[in-house]
Amino acid sequence: MISLISLQKIIIKIAFIFFLFSCSAFSQENIIQDSLQTGYSSDDSMFVMQKSPLKAVLLSAVVPGLGQIYNESYWKVPVILGLGYYFVSVWVDNNNLYWKYARLYSKNQIEDYKRVREFYRDQRDQFAVYIGLTYILTLVDAYVDAQLFDFNVLPDPVTLSPQLQISVKF
Description:
Blueprint: H1 4-38, H2 53-62, H3 66-70, H4 76-108, H5 111-147
């Protein structure tokens, strides 16, 4: 005899499978109806991206912020350069203090100098990670911004309802 708990699990699984099939059939039906109403077919036109994600990443890799200029996201450039300047300047300060206390410790062998030296070394290494993450996030932002450059979220002029025009090309 089937227990009540296992019967509930079976009913939930069947309902979930039914939900998945009904959603996919509904979405396919809408796509077919939309293409019949508008006369648009995926074979009628070819989508061409205005911005190249590879070019945006390469530009941003050479000079951080240049990919954002290419993508016309001008407001991001001062943010990127400001963060980069801050992280590099703090890294340089921590590096100078590390070497200062390293010299003092090598001369005097005082444990306080060693502790402070290790603190500045850890801070220097931490800001090196911040610099690397900022650089990588700049590249990712340039790539995503170029991919979404053509993404249109303007309302439909006839119905004034929001519409999404998404194109995916593999």
